[in-house]
Amino acid sequence: MSEQMRIMRSKELPEELRDRIVARHRSGQGYKKISAALKVPKSTVASIILKWKTFGTTRTLPRAGRPAKLSYRGRRALVREVKKNPKITVAELQRCSREMGESCRKSVASQQLRDCS
């Protein structure tokens, strides 16, 4: 399988199209007919209908992953501190975040700054 095909395979379908797939399924159409009518692979139709049966929705559900240690507000505060004082050390940034009520490790503070720039 080519690299381009792998990239295309991971694209998400619009919610409106997913709703149309479920509506056609509820009206009694089979996977093959839905697939042909909407030009969507049969496997995609099947997975959308399975997701709808399991979760009762076609919306994109939150993906698994570790929650962020710092909130959006905390990240912005760190960036503001660095803009105020560009020579601030990571240890001082860690103290600032602790004062705000969001304690984090030095590595987390430096990683957040790298991600923001």
From TrEMBL:
<dbReference type="InterPro" id="IPR036388">
    <property type="entry name" value="WH-like_DNA-bd_sf"/>
</dbReference>
<dbReference type="InterPro" id="IPR009057">
    <property type="entry name" value="Homeodomain-like_sf"/>
</dbReference>
<protein>
    <recommendedName>
        <fullName>Sleeping Beauty transposase HTH domain-containing protein</fullName>
    </recommendedName>
</protein>
<dbReference type="Pfam" id="PF25787">
    <property type="entry name" value="HTH_SB"/>
</dbReference>
<dbReference type="InterPro" id="IPR057667">
    <property type="entry name" value="HTH_SB"/>
</dbReference>
<feature type="domain" description="Sleeping Beauty transposase HTH">
    <location>
        <begin position="8"/>
        <end position="59"/>
    </location>
</feature>
